[in-house]
Amino acid sequence: MQEIPLSEIKQIQIGHAQDLSAATGCTVILCPEGAAAGVDIRGGGPASRETQLLNPVAAAEKIHAVLLSGGSAFGLDAAGGVMQYLEEKHIGFETGAAKVPLVCASCIYDLIIGASNIRPDKTMGYQACENAQVNLRTDGCIGVGTGATVGKFLGPASMMKSGLGSYAIQIGELKIGAIVAVNALGDIFDTQTGMQIAGPLHAASPDMHTEQAASADSTVMLCTEELICHQYSGLKNLFTGNTTIGAIITNGNFTKTEMNKIAAMAQNGLARSINPVHTTADGDSVYALSVGDISADLNVTGTLAAQVMSSAITRAIYSAESMCGVPSYQELFSENRLQK
To answer: With contact defined as beta carbons under 8 Å apart, do 14 and 31 qualify?
Structure first.
């Protein structure tokens, strides 16, 4: 097994577009030849479009793109730009009267930083497709990861900057990778070390007394699970602004039904790296795309899907840069520690 760049998985093109001042953006995964795809949604608050196409009983056997966007449900508008781009390239499902591009989309809530009235739209979605023609980086505060944050249970004063992460491996001819935007309610853990690497910071908040504020340490991470448990009898509705969305991509040859199972197994990667996860306050959604003809075992591929997803989540934290006054792991703990 060896790590490879995600771009080594052929028959896909990944592009990003973002507005850094507004702290929002989108990422598109184009599949010009079509991809058998599945999805697994476990969060209670997803913002999505066309995901029912991936139901095994739906007629469409392949889709042409997956859009991962910021902007909450507003960001679903960016899928229109992806459809326009694909239509111009004569890519889509033949209906007789026209080719209709099949584009699935999911969004994160990133309105809490930057400009909440600026969201990914049709123009930005189209730009992401154009940018997919060049080899752009897939980690950090780029595309859908531009406005991603974690550690929001205590409010914006305690949150940390997150971003977009990717990771891919190869075993023999089989290649499998993940790309994910981490915007979770729960804390993030590096499964290789067992250490918590993101979560609510012990920072001063407006309701603290002067003595408490003076003793607050912005380099100490608190435990969201403990915070939630301490408030079990009177938990307020503080669960806004969360969701982890991503995709598994493989050159393994699988059907739509099989890709739904692989997407479900990939959710184990979220469970390993995020705690709590799959809450009613998250919209956790994982897509899985088959874009090759390599013969591979379903269970092996699903197991690897969880592994690369977990590693991609870790990389999203390590590669994120501070933005809009929200500190990152790099700034707070190790400016030079980027997972290679």
So the answer is: no
pLDDT band with cut points at 50, 70 and 90 for residue 333:
confident
Sign of the dihedral defined by the CA atoms of residues 283, 165, 128, 288, in that order: negative
Cis amide prior to 276 (ω within 30 degrees): yes
- Give the C-alpha separation, 118 to 194, whole Å: 37
- How far apart (Å, rounded) are the C-alpha atoms in residues 178 and 250? 9
Cα–Cα dist 178/169, whole Å: 9
* Amino acid of residue 244: T
260/74 Cα distance (integer angstroms): 26
- CA–CA dist 64, 60 (Å, integer): 11
Residue spans of alpha helices (H) in the chain? 78-88, 122-131, 210-215, 224-230, 256-273, 298-319, 329-332
pLDDT band at 214 (very low <50, low <70, confident <90, very high): very low
Distance CA 193, CA 238 (A): 30
Q: Give residue-wise pLDDT tens across range 32-91.
A: 999 999 999 987 888 899 999 999 999 999 999 999 999 999 999 999 999 999 999 999
Q: For helices 256-273 and 298-319, what crossing angle results, to 10°?
A: 40
| pTM of the predicted structure, to 2 decimals | 0.92
Angle (CA) 13-16-21 rounded to 5° is 175
pLDDT surpassing 50 at residue 206: no
Residues in the chain: 340
* Cα–Cα dist 277/271, whole Å: 6
